[in-house]
Design brief:
Length: 100
């Protein structure tokens, strides 16, 4: 959907990688985030369960003139900012109740 022109267009299919190296890298990133924020691990589930890690990606930000794309990720009771270039994490907001 082109919002500016108010027209719908066919979207191209995403590129499917020839290898799974990219998937391995993403898993390493996920494990690093889980090591920093262990509350995202749902120990009541098995590690191979797709919902073992509690997170959702709120936004992928990659501006035209920006060499530093990043993710905005919702973790249990907080929102974090993950930079791809330097693999750094920054807590943007903490939704924990006062006194907990």
């Amino acid at each position: 959907m082109d919002v500016d022109e108010e027209k719908q267009h066919e979207m191209p299919m995403p590129v499917i990688p020839d290898s799974y190296d990219d998937d391995d890298n993403r898993m390493v990133v996920l494990l690093a985030v889980a090591a920093t924020f262990p509350e995202m691990v749902r120990s009541s589930l098995e590690p191979w369960d797709l919902h073992y890690y509690a997170f959702s990606i709120l936004s992928v930000v990659w501006e035209e003139n920006d060499d530093d794309p990043y993710l905005v990720v919702n973790l249990p009771k907080k929102v974090v900012h993950y930079k791809f270039n330097d693999k750094s994490l920054e807590k943007l907001n903490d939704f924990a109740r006062v006194g907990t």
